[in-house]
Amino acid sequence: MKIRAAVLPATGSPLEVLEVDLADPKEREVLVRLDWSGVCHSDQNAIDGTSETPCPAILGHEGAGVIEAVGPGSRLQIGQRVALSWAPSCNECEECTRGLRHLCGAAWPAMGKGGLMDGTSRLSHDGETIFHNSFLSTFAEACVVPDASCVLIRDDDPLDIASIVGCAVTTGVGAVWNTGQVRPGDRVAIFGCGGVGLSAIMGARAAGAECVIAVDLSQEKLDDAIDCGATHAVQWQGDAESTADAVRALVGTGVDCAVEATGRPEVATACYLSTRVRGAAVLIGIPRADAIVSFPALALPRMERRILGSIYGSSYPPEMFPQLLELHRQGRLPLEKLISHRLPLDRVNEAFELMHQGASRRVMLDVRS
Fold first, then answer.
1. Same domain, yes or no, for 72 and 186?
2. At which of 267, 290, 309 does a domain end?
3. Which of 12, 169, 179, 322 is the most buried (most CB within 10 A)?
4. Handedness of CA 132, 40, 240, 230 (dihedral sign)
5. pLDDT tens for residues 355-368?
């Protein structure tokens, strides 16, 4: 079938909206007609080369929609509504059997090659292969994805909210709940108040954190953080040590959990320095491949400070997505506050310009024809 999609021709290039060919789903794959796609900073990382991405590619990894076709052996049915996960799991590899299905040893190598789980693409343009992005490629009217990337959602779940649950919300909330294991009464600091950071703030409040400190360079982002539930705001002080001092000045000895959501090494250091005894620095931002983070080593054994990596919020999407959507229905996670702009697919490059300017929370692309 023919679909309209935003294609990245090469690293560093603007996206081009083209009519491309989408092949039928193969074994244990489905075709999803999309409604919305969120625009994530990870997409920007693909554009600028921070994350090496085979090109030409259709970007986008936050999407939700309705199944229109199923391949052989699929467990799903036409007409079902789904939110998409970019971390399918095989349930057979060493990581999956250890309960680390978001780190599936089969999915991660396949993802980097720009195909689906069998290593091949369902996308092309004028006979030339177009690569998938994170198995999903949601900057398009429709996509073919692994069966395991689909999480069933309720008929009353808004598809725009379900789209951002697919990455930003799960990444941010999961980092607080699953990786950082924040409990009622804890003190939390969130460094970086983009879509993921704001999600982490909401997750910390939903977990019962007593104090949630937002840290960012932008006063506008800090205002967003307060609107999304932060109890305090600290502007970046120019270096890691001074910023950590400003955070600790609000709570005395430091925070129980500090989440880094920028990918910048100096912010990761500030995150670590802001924690108290037995505190955890949770690093979720995607740095450049050559980035090095420095930490004062003595505090690790003497204070039992911890440094934890977190990808996708250490979450298993089939369990996490429904939980997040249920809390949204209850009003405990006001995820609608994350969406600041809605643009048609043709204005996809404007979405990234808004991101660069720091003028958006989450931009949603209306990919419907």
1. no
2. 309
3. 169
4. negative
5. 988 888 999 999 99
Tell me how far apart the alpha carbons of residues 19 and 5 are, in angstroms, rounded to a whole number.
6
3-class DSSP assignment, residue 351: helix
CATH of the domain at 276: 3.40.50.720
Cβ contacts of residue 13 below 8 Å, gap of 6+?
47
Q: How would DSSP label each residue in 196-247?
A: HHHHHHHHHHHTT-SEEEEEES-HHHHHHHHHTT-SEEEE--SSHHHHHHHH
Cβ-contact 218, 360 below 8 angstroms: no
- Model confidence at 51, pLDDT cuts 50, 70, 90, reads confident
Domain count, the chain: 2
Residue 44 gets which letter from DSSP?
A: H
The predicted-structure confidence for 265-293, as pLDDT tens digits, reads as follows 999 999 999 999 999 999 999 888 899 99
